[in-house]
Amino acid sequence: MFTVTDHRVDQADFIQSPNFSDRPEEVEPSLLVIHNISLPPGEFGGPFIIDFFQNKLDISKHSFFEEIADLQVSSHFFVDREGHLIQFVDLNKKAWHAGISEFEGQKECNDFSIGIELEGTDTDSYSDKQYLSLINLTNCLMETYPGISTERIVGHSDIAPSRKTDPGESFDWSRYKNSLT
């Protein structure tokens, strides 16, 4: 079981991203947003996602990196294909993961959400280890932040449908949500 101490999940490796800001006063997380990411697109493993969230991506390593070199983004968490959990932003801070977004009429989802990136694509199946880590993390976050309920767990595509498709058709929402306690 995962636990939170001082806005960090104890079981996660912490690698600070510079891409965060303060949440609005007295706002606690009440939305969980599931994303996917792979760098280069469709490739797994390697240091590129960590480098990207730290603004250290070496654009000479792949031609696609030139397209995203100037972006400053982050998520609170990243779950790799082996289920390894990395935290980039403290939970009381706003990670820059949702972009232009809206949930139930409330804009700027970064203000009130926690972002979780899964290493994957819209069409590649996620690993059993990723689901296990994601389920444990979600249960921990729901216990820590009572405003997060199963109805307030969404994909990036749900809050930015004209821009985003992740976590994609390969994500098994039933498996995930039916495993939550």
Topology:
Elements: E1 4-5, E2 8-9, E3 13-14, E4 20-22, E5 31-37, H1 48-53, H2 65-68, E6 77-79, E7 85-87, E8 93-95, E9 102-103, E10 106-107, E11 113-119, H3 128-144, E12 153-155, H4 156-159, H5 173-178
Parallel strand pairs: 3-7, 5-11, 5-12, 6-11
Antiparallel strand pairs: 1-2, 4-8, 6-7, 9-10
How is this structure best summarized?
By secondary structure, this protein is α/β, with parallel strands linked by helices.
Q: Which structural category do the helix and sheet elements fall into?
A: alpha/beta
Low-confidence stretches: none
Mean pLDDT: 97
Shape assignment: globular
Alpha carbon gap, first and last residue: 12 Å
Strand content bin: 15-25%
The level of helicity is 10-25%
Describe the 3D structure:
With 181 residues, the protein is an alpha/beta fold. It contains five helices and twelve strands. The protein has helices at residues 48-53, 65-68, 128-144, 156-159, 173-178, and strands spanning 4-5, 8-9, 13-14, 20-22, 31-37, 77-79, 85-87, 93-95, 102-103, 106-107, 113-119, 153-155. The strands form four sheets. Strands 3-7-6-11-5-12 form a six-stranded mixed beta sheet. Strands 1-2 form a two-stranded antiparallel ribbon. The protein is globular, with a radius of gyration of 15 Å.
